[in-house]
Design goal:
About 50% of the residues lie in helices and about 15% in strands. It is α/β, with parallel strands linked by helices. Helix 3 links the parallel strand 2 and strand 3. Helix 2 crosses helix 3. It is globular. It starts with a helix and ends with a helix.
């Protein structure tokens, strides 16, 4: 998500907060997750000049976005799996759609309502991938481990029937390049990052607070206040940038 925002909003400053004490959210009770998110936002709001909040997590969005918008005067932008654009891509071909997400996202009413609203032809299937979230939170990018994991999870699917895979968790784009090599070449891989940043851009422009000159600055924080994890976050961001350039 941050990598996409940096590409599309090159003049904005960003504060990225990783809740390392409590993630992954997608496998925990929703009441706990709601509490963690409110604590995280309260911590972020002590920083100066916060003009918008992006909840860069589908699970967190589905559980807290309404409450956060009522609580804070600045814009709060949420995320949802890119099911609607996937349906539009596949409408002409009749191919199926496979959504990768956390168990909690897939269980929430917000996700089920989204699918029911846009999936008129019942093309959407869902696959929970809790271990993949844990791999990413640990900044685990060992190619063979991740490849074997994907192959196990996809073994029961006839991939010839599918036209699009939706990465319904903001962690999963770290593995886009590897996935593109595992999946048949006809399958599109999409995520909700670009749509979210477009929405953020629109909101900032509407509020006349969009910066159009200068360079961006990035501040990385984590709830454990771990310098070593901050270094790993920097490495992960560099890894994602390199992966996207080579893809």
């Amino acid at each position: 998500m941050l990598s996409t925002a940096l590409n599309m909003l090159p003049c904005e400053d960003f504060l990225f907060y990783a809740d390392t004490l409590h993630v992954p959210y997608g496998t925990k009770p929703k009441e706990d997750v709601q509490s963690y998110i409110h604590q995280a936002i309260e911590s972020i709001m002590t920083e100066d000049d916060i003009k918008a909040i992006v909840i860069a997590c589908n699970t967190a969005t589905s559980l807290t976005i309404s409450d956060l918008r009522q609580k804070y005067a600045i814009p709060v932008i949420g995320m949802e799996p890119a099911v609607k654009p996937a349906v539009e891509i596949n409408r002409a071909t009749g191919k199926r759609i496979l959504v990768f997400a956390t168990p909690l996202t897939l269980q929430e009413t917000k996700y089920r309502d989204l699918v029911q609203r846009v999936d008129e032809k019942h093309m959407v299937d869902s696959l929970p991938l809790p271990e993949l979230v844990e791999y990413c939170e640990a900044l685990h990018f060992d190619r063979q481990t991740i490849e074997d994991y994907f192959k196990r999870k996809l073994a029961d699917f006839n991939l010839a029937d599918y036209g699009t895979v939706v990465l319904g968790c903001t962690h999963f784009p770290f593995y886009t390049e590897l996935l593109s090599q595992i999946l048949p070449s006809h399958i599109h891989i999409i995520d909700g990052n670009q749509g979210t940043v477009k929405r953020l851009t629109h909101v900032l422009r509407h509020r006349e607070s969009l910066r159009t000159d200068g360079s961006s600055d990035i501040k990385l924080l984590n709830s454990a206040q771990s310098d070593s994890y901050t270094s790993k976050m920097e490495e992960a961001l560099d890894f994602l940038r390199r992966s996207r350039k080579s893809h």
